[in-house]
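Intended use. Records such as the Phosphoesterase entry shown here are meant for training and evaluating sequence-to-structure methods. They are not intended to support clinical decisions.
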Amino acid sequence: MKCLIMSDSHGSTEVITNVLEQASSDIDGVIHCGDSELSIDHPALKNVCVVRGNCDSSEFPEEILEKIQGISIYITHGHLYNVKMTYVPLSYRAEEREAQLVCFGHSHVPAAFEENGVVYVNPGSLLLPRQQLEKTYAIVDMTGTGPVTVSYYNAETGEEVSSLGKTFTLSK
């Protein structure tokens, strides 16, 4: 399963369109982790799984549990789980939802880590990055048994930001 993950585009349809054009055609799913600041029926979000961020209207769901090619993906913005301070509440929710991959945003800081066999990915921000210069999105390549690769890309150029990428080998 190969999934494009983006977040925090804050009303910019141009950056979303640019990222979708940059992504390879072998993407199995597209996720927006909130703060799109667009309407639920906006053409830029067509075929994109989108959750509500703290800057979005109430038309989007707070969370989604999606299965893509047998991988259980939990999607939330992160503001309800205090992700700017700790990942503990988010990890509890991921465990409750039996997620294999957790996608979240809110902090505008790209992050990828593994805890208890679950991979967590924050793609950073498409518009207002923090703690680094690049506006970023992520692509996760994950199969049920093999390694999980999280690659980050510059949203403006499409070039890989190799310093942010990570590979995980899951035990379960």
